[in-house]
Amino acid sequence: MERFLQGVADFSAWLWGIPLITMLLVSGLYMTFKLGFFQFRYIGYIFGQTFGSIFRRPKGEGTVTPFQALTSALSSTIGAANIVGVPAAIMFGGPGAIFWMWVIALIGMALKFAESVLAVEYREKNGNGEFVGGPMYYMTKGLNMKWLGVWFSFALMIELIPSIMVQGNSIANTVQATFNVPVLWTGIITAVLVSIVVFGGIKRIGKVTEIFVPFMALLYVGGAVVILLMNVKAVPEFFMLIFSNAFSPAPVMGGFAGAAIVEVIRWGFARGLYSNEAGLGTAPIAHAAATTDHPVRQGFWAVIGIVVDTLIVCTATAFVILSSGVWTEEGAMENSSALTSLAFEQYFGDFGAILVTIALIFFVLSTILVVVFYGAKQAEFLFGLKAAHGMQVVYIIAVVLGAIGAAEVIWGFLDIMLAAILIPNVIAILLLSNKVKDLKNEFFSSDEYYRKDLKVKKRAKRQKAAREGYES
Question: What is the set of domains in the chain, with CATH numbers?
Answer without folding.
Answer: 10-49+59-432 (1.20.1740.10)
